[in-house]
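Weekly puzzle thread! Below is a chain. First person to post its structure in token form gets bragging rights.
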Amino acid sequence: MTHSARRIGRSLAFVLPVVLVLSGTLAVASVPWAGNSAGTQMLTASSENVSVPAAKSRAPQDVLRDKLLAELQQKDPGFALTSLQREVEERPSLAKHCMSIAKALGRAAVEHYGPVRAQTYSRPVCDTSFASGVAHVR
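Winning reply:
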């Protein structure tokens, strides 16, 4: 009995890794993000010029900062701060950039409204960084 069990164990030890590797390869090759969705999956060399740099995508915090600065110009700093708070609550990955964005809003508010009026919009968003941005411009 031990001889046949040992023989089955050896066979499984050889066959099982081969089966796992092949099934994993086939699974990865058949997912939708692996290439063309037209049915045939194959790797092809690109015919595009490689030396041309691709358009750089902007970081989410930079996009958010620009959006909020535009809101500040169109509406008021209070609206922009509320939008900042909502964005940070919806996307916690932006929390580490909240203080720098709020400071930028504070500096822009001083430029647009003056230091006294900009300070009236201050609220405790991102540890009062908006107020800090207003104070540094003075």
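Puzzle host: Confirmed. Bonus trivia for everyone else. The first helix runs from residue 2 to 29.
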